[in-house]
Write a sequence for this structure.
């Protein structure tokens, strides 16, 4: 298993990881919206100073695009249907082996990625299959400072 300190790239799902998996319909102009933690955003910005950070998510709502864009993250892998193909593309693009990637997810569709990367992390309230596939189950629930926990573990290699 990859140590947190040795991860060269951090990738994550959005729904249920950066959010608590709750959505609200804000009308046809805005679409579906979600709640994001400011603290997780700040942690992503700090991590981005030391590592490559790339979201890998089926979510391509206006809210998700706006949030990722506001953090200055590469948005090419928002709205992907096949996350393994997306992971392979990310690894090729950045010249990093999957074994050097830390991925954080929560859903059934994250299972193949959690198994493929060097350090697969599931949020505390993840789908049972994601928990089973992960190398590590975090103490944080989706949308509740998950990235802060990842940052802390990266800094302390906990």
């Amino acid at each position: 298993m990859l140590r947190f300190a040795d991860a060269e790239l951090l990738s994550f799902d959005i729904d249920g990881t950066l959010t608590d998996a709750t959505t609200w319909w804000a009308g046809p102009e805005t679409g579906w919206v979600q709640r994001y933690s400011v603290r997780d955003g700040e942690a992503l910005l700090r991590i981005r100073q030391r590592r490559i950070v790339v979201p890998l998510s089926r979510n391509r709502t206006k809210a998700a695009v706006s949030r990722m864009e506001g953090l200055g993250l590469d948005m090419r892998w928002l709205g992907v249907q096949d996350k393994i193909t997306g992971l392979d593309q990310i690894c090729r693009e950045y010249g990093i082996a999957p074994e050097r990637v830390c991925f954080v997810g929560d859903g059934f569709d994250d299972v193949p990625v959690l198994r493929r990367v060097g350090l697969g992390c599931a949020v505390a309230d993840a789908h049972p299959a994601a928990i089973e596939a992960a190398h590590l189950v975090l103490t944080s629930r989706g949308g509740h400072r998950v990235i802060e926990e990842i940052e802390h573990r990266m800094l302390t290699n906990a």
Summary: The chain is about 35% helix and 15% strand.
